[in-house]
Automatic annotation (TrEMBL):
Functional summary from the UniProt entry: mRNA decapping enzyme that specifically removes the nicotinamide adenine dinucleotide (NAD) cap from a subset of mRNAs by hydrolyzing the diphosphate linkage to produce nicotinamide mononucleotide (NMN) and 5' monophosphate mRNA. The NAD-cap is present at the 5'-end of some RNAs; in contrast to the canonical N7 methylguanosine (m7G) cap, the NAD cap promotes mRNA decay. Preferentially acts on NAD-capped transcripts in response to nutrient stress. Also acts on free nicotinamide adenine dinucleotide molecules: hydrolyzes NAD(H) into NMN(H) and AMP, and NADPH into NMNH and 2',5'-ADP.
ANK repeat residue intervals: 45-77
Protein name in the entry: NAD-capped RNA hydrolase NUDT12
Gene3D superfamilies: 3.90.79.20, Ankyrin repeat-containing domain, Nucleoside Triphosphate Pyrophosphohydrolase
Entry's Gene Ontology molecular function annotations: metal ion binding; NADH pyrophosphatase activity
Listed PANTHER family: NAD-CAPPED RNA HYDROLASE NUDT12, NUDIX HYDROLASE, NUDC SUBFAMILY
InterPro entries given in the database record: Ankyrin_rpt (IPR002110), Ankyrin_rpt-contain_sf (IPR036770), NAD-cap_RNA_hydrolase_NudC (IPR050241), NADH_PPase-like_N (IPR015375), NudC-like_C (IPR049734), NUDIX_hydrolase-like_dom_sf (IPR015797), NUDIX_hydrolase_CS (IPR020084), NUDIX_hydrolase_dom (IPR000086)
Assembly and oligomerization: Homodimer. Homodimerization is essential for its catalytic activity and protein stability. Interacts (via ANK repeats) with BLMH.
Cellular component, GO annotation: cytosol; peroxisome
């Protein structure tokens, strides 16, 4: 593009975003019919037309953009989606439009906020097809299918390609292999192979192309030397991330969902090599979703035993709201980076309800007593296999006494300080975990819930 063409394009984007911000539906529509690609363009601080319409309450513009298929999930430089912005500024009609709730569902579950909050690691890109896990003939055919995608894991980290040094952005991508490139690994007895599922059909694809089944995905975990494995990749920008709980947050939402599934199942295989009932060796079944004991006398062979299936550990994570409604309780562990505060969290114990786990963990960790508890959303957290159950809770006492074994400091933070910190206002007093964590999303949920409503 010449510099003249570039500046003409920039002018057009600016005009389009300005029209959306002013609520000028006629201009928004005519510019879009001229240049459809304007729809997801961003301007200052990563704001899209939809975000600007949501900021200023222009429902008709927002409706037009949504009807033309704009990206509702993109985030600005403060990690806000258009829905966050609509909620924050109190434009309920736009928040309703963007929260995707079906009218008929509203009638069945009246009063509930049905906006589906999707958290990082939670996107289901693949259809798990659990019914196929016992169909060995089908699985074997799929393993050899030329379109099948294989992900390679070493030490519970997936092989990823990192961005070229001269490119912008810090995203990493999964390295995808075909059958030919991994078939030697499939022969090795130590290899663990997990069937992940089939790519979901795109609703937009034409009916003629739907005769062919979409590709299926497998994950391979191998004990082959990591450096050897990297040689299989043509690009020289590939690696196995060393600090998964930081590095895996750089994947796209789609790939993060697949990694959450694969990593948790592989972590279970790597930690549960022997039967926990009798100590005998076990073998892998059901395309990686079951481990059965090899001892025919073992009790786990009779009936269904949960020890044979991958585990999920429920964890409650809660934003505790002060009885005055205008402060929230955040704490920090010694291992957190300096200045970071987050929601309190803790493992649910056997025989414990979610609400009780929230009350117990908050009291143990901060000394604060909690009354009402409300579920908000959840997040699979594959380190190794937590299910984070996100709640809001209202405190009934306010004195803080931390459990020094776990928490270094806990404090009540006023709403304005939290807003400054979330949206990177001038010199924030503290900072919160990144947007990929449910802790961040819970804090944002509270701030957005009643700020300007
Ligand atoms: N995605 C997110 O936003 C966040 C995720 N987390 C995750 O939640 C988890 C739990 O939070 P904590 O405050 O550490 O829990 P916690 O307050 O229950 O304390 C952890 C201790 O609980 C015990 N424990 C009980 N059941 C356990 C189990 N199934 N696995 C491991 N330890 C168990 C261990 O002694 C452990 O040291 C952590 O693994 C952390 O990675 C925590 C905060 C934010
Ligand atoms: Mg805790
Ligand atoms: Mg605890
Ligand atoms: Mg605990
Ligand atoms: Zn056994």
């Amino acid at each position: 593009m010449t510099s003249f063409q570039m500046s003409a394009k920039e002018d057009m984007v600016e005009k389009f975003l300005d029209a959306a911000a002013r609520g000028d539906l006629t201009q928004v529509s005519s510019l879009l019919s001229l240049v459809p690609s304007l729809i997801n363009q961003t301007g200052y601080s990563g704001w899209t037309a939809l975000m600007l319409a949501a900021r200023n309450g222009h429902l008709h513009v927002a409706e037009k953009l949504v009807s033309l298929g704009c990206d509702k999930s993109s985030v600005n430089s403060s990690s806000q989606t258009a829905l966050d912005i609509a909620k924050f500024w109190g434009h309920r009609h736009i928040a309703g439009l963007l929260s995707q709730s079906e009218g008929s569902c509203r009638r069945i579950l009246p009063g509930g906020d049905l906006s589906l909050q999707e958290n990082y690691f939670g996107r289901e890109t693949l259809d798990r097809l659990s019914g196929r896990r016992t169909d060995e003939v089908w699985l074997e055919t799929k393993q050899k299918d030329l379109a099948t995608v294989y992900l390679l894991f070493s030490n519970l980290s997936p092989m990823v390609s990192t961005p070229q040094e001269d490119s912008e952005g810090g995203d990493i991508k999964l390295c995808r292999f075909r059958y030919e490139a991994v078939k030697d690994l499939l022969q090795k007895p130590s290899t663990v192979l997990i069937f992940l599922g089939m790519e979901k059909m795109k609703s937009s694809s034409s009916s003629s192309s739907q005769t062919e089944e979409p590709p299926v995905w497998f994950a391979i975990s191998t004990d082959e030397d990591a450096a050897e494995l990297l040689r299989r990749c043509r690009e020289n920008t590939c690696l196995f991330p060393k600090t998964p709980n930081r590095d895996l947050l750089k994947l796209s939402e789609e790939e993060a969902g697949v990694v959450a599934q694969a990593r948790s199942v592989l972590a279970w295989h790597s930690r549960y090599s022997f039967c926990s009932t009798c100590g005998s060796s076990t073998h892998l079944e059901e395309a990686g979703y079951k481990r059965s004991c090899l001892n025919p006398e073992c009790r786990s062979q009779r009936g269904v035993h949960n020890t044979c299936y991958p585990r999920v550990d429920p964890v409650v994570i809660m934003l505790v709201i002060h009885p005055d409604g205008n402060q929230c309780l955040l704490g920090r562990k010694k291992v957190f980076p300096a200045g970071m505060f987050s929601c309190l969290a803790g493992f649910v114990e056997p025989g414990e309800a979610i609400e009780e786990a929230v009350r117990r963990e908050v009291e143990e960790e901060s000394g604060v007593k909690v009354g009402p508890v409300q579920y908000v959303s959840c997040q699979p957290w594959p380190m190794p296999s937590n299910l984070m159950i996100g709640c809001l809770a209202v405190a009934v006492t306010t004195d803080i006494k931390v459990d020094e074994k776990e928490i270094e400091e806990a404090r009540w933070f006023p709403r304005q300080q939290v807003i400054d910190s979330l949206f990177r206002g001038a010199s924030p007093a503290f900072f919160v975990p990144p947007r990929q964590t449910i802790a961040h999303q819970l804090i944002k949920h509270w701030v957005g819930m009643n700020s300007n409503l």
